[in-house]
Specification:
binds adenosine-5'-diphosphate; 48% helix; eight-stranded mixed β-sheet
Amino acid sequence: MAKKAKAKRVAGKSRIANTKSRKHVYFFGAGRADGNRTMKDLLGGKGSGLAEMTNAGLPVPPGFTISTEVCNIYYKEKGKIPSSISRDITENVKKLEKTAGATLGSTENPLLVSVRSGAKFSMPGMMDTILNLGLNDDAVEGLKRRTDNGRFAFDSYRRFIQMFGNVVLEIPKDSFEHEFDAVKKARGARLDTDLDEAALREVVERYKKVVKSKAGRDFPQDPHRQLEMARDAVFRSWMNARAIEYRRIYDIPDHIGTAVNVQMMVFGNTGDRSGTGVGFTRNPGTGAKEFYGEFLINAQGEDVVAGIRTPQPIRELEQVMPKAYKQLREITTRLEKHYKDVQDFEFTIQDEKLFMLQTRSGKRTGYAAVVIATDLVSEKLITPKEAVLLVDPESLSQLLAPGFDPAEWKKIPTATTGLPASPGAASGQVVFTADHAVEWTQQGKKVVLVRRETVPDDIHGMFVAQGILTATGGMTSHAAVVGRQMGKPSVVGAGGLEIDEAGKRFRVAGQSVKEGDYISFDGLSGEVKIAQVASKPSEILQVVNGGLDASKSSLYRRFKQLLSWADRFRRLGIRANADQPDQAELAHAFGAEGIGLCRTEHMFFGEGRIPIVQRMILATTEADRRKALAELLPLQRQDFYGVFKGMHGKPVTIRTIDPPLHEFLPKREELMVDIARLEALGKTGKQLDEKRTLLARVEQLHEFNPMLGHRGVRLGITYPEITEMQTRAIIEAACQAHKEGLKVVPEIMIPLVGILKEFSDQKAIVDRVAADVMKEQKIKIKYLVGTMIEIPRGCTIADQIAREAEFFSFGTNDLTQLTFGFSRDDVGKFLKIYQDKKILERDPFASIDVEGVGDLVRVGVERGRATRPDLKLGICGEHGGDAASVHFFHNVGLAADAAGAYRIPVARLAAAQAALSVKVGD
Ligand code: ADP
Ligand code: MG
Ligand code: MG
């Protein structure tokens, strides 16, 4: 006993010792780095990229990365950094001082650093970078002496106070901007760069007063203290509202934390031989192979992205600084080869010397993703397998999004043209704030968000808008980056717009547009028009629907190529949820290998059918019911035949009637109103009698909880003649198809089975009727009878059901509803609150709850297979089109996955990635 306790203590101790000896700070500089590209979890994307570039011998300013683990420790220790880690940081600062040949706070040669956040996934919702840290009232004079450039020294200092004041001391940006503008105005300066040293000294004095009055303290002068405060601000920013919202939208877990990068400053603001910029190795909007980006002369850091001055296209750098340009091209081409993917990079040029500050995989639109992946294969940079892994399945749905009809579009004059940041057609009512975007969308309106420039706080509005339009900013501004990532049509930097955000209006080309007016814009051309313009199907859909020849669409050919590569690797069969011949046709064109769920009741809503269905429901005797069913029979047979043809003979799973019958009848309240009206008019006779009978039946069929009521297999059991009619229609249609050479194997699926005998009852009917039909038709065809596993009891007794059922299809919509006890129709009232409170991370109806619902699926699979090893297993809930869920279905060993027609490309690609076992979002 005592021994055991001791062993435990020792183990505990060694664990602590382990944490202590663990490396928390990673140095990079002078050609060598402690980290590398494989260490994104620990160093974040930025830190791992800086390490990798350093190791590759690229010009990267030296620095160090404090790991993401320290972020978690910071939270666990309630905002304190253990002294062992503080010591590590101090040692790394010393090492950095040595490498840089400069010292923090020195008046001779002060070391300045940037403090940069950086999680595993790039997150625009997080902290702004702090530049020029280390400056104080003495060091700034040292910097001036050393560089012989007082303007530069004070420009750096004012930037530092502003950034530190805003990010660390949480003083609103306007408080600083107000002072800055005042000085500019007093001196008659138009551009920031017009201010001289004296003016900037005045700005610094004013800024220090802002800090004193707003933060109630002096601006901290000790550089070591500045560094600690900045580091902690990065950690705190991990939990700010924007960052949390961003992670929620993109399903990034909260626990991974952010790293902090501390890096020696290089200066793009020393004069006209310096500058800063950002770029991509290929066009992230269209995927075209062209060097792409922007830069600003005599500027620092975020100036390019912030849209304060309009940057120059990167090509022009070739004229201004040819040597640096050439080197940049060489380096970025090398980076693309090295990472085997498009790179998004940041650089700064100090006195014509180039420095690399960041590289990462470039975010791109769905179009660009497909173009780039197929191009990289043609260029032999990657294999088809790597291409399949390079494209986010979700981005394929963007390729199916509509565009404007060119003829309609041409008719309307262009009001202004901005930068085409993210392709797609957007049309809707103008709103000027993110909150309005959300409110109006909730009222069912389609809105476009118009802003001078967007900020990370706008993310919720950008998410719901049809598109984003800004007046300032370049192709790498916030609106552009986020728009592309969300797949939202975006036009940025439309300088022709004079926006009056407070007055909720803008002027353009002599017209005034107010909130609520319609505008449209094209994210591929950048054109903006003051009108509502109808959009038309995407190029891919046009080819699929036969309106455009495949040879005329390179996009379609690439799309098809990529998906055919995906098919090489996937093991999960992909089917469609479809119940109309044209849907089946579309699904087939998208590569569906069959139909996983054909909902027969949707056919009951077809033209002229509802009265027959109602007659069937109103029938009081079996004979009357059979009469109505006899009328439905030829219609259903025709439907099934159409679907078989649309699927070109591929397997089709048809579900027998599922919803409660009152869904086919008018609403009780409507009937009561009708009757009252007829009575008031003094009408009597047939019409009134019919309404009264209908009302009586509606009241009879009323259920307190229809979801748990008389539906699914329960209908087939109480009205066997419905199952008989449906079976007859299916088998007759299949016989007809067979006679025409289409060897379809219908799969008849009984819904909502939870008791073996329910299934046996229905299977007996199906087998009997099928035998009759085949005898009449003098032909033998193959068919299967199976069930939908969608109530928890169906999963737990799957071993019994599999004795008789030839296939299972998991109906994950109902299974989720019944496992959680959440009504699908009412969950909207509380789901958002559950997510806000982190009770649920995601909507379980959108992405399968692997832990609970998934476990029931697993039980169903295991027990079913134990009885019948060759049992066919599939899923047919809405989850079939969700990439993360598809991974789970693959892993649990299902054979087929069914998704809505438009989601089939997504499912095919996701299934391939699952087979190649990568995690979604990695
Ligand atoms: P983000 O994640 O928002 O891109 P970064 O940390 O990359 O933030 O910083 C933004 C910009 O700040 C960079 O693109 C670069 O221009 C500038 N910057 C960051 N660190 C340095 C540095 N050490 N020297 C010069 N500029 C820097
Ligand atoms: Mg930033
Ligand atoms: Mg950056």
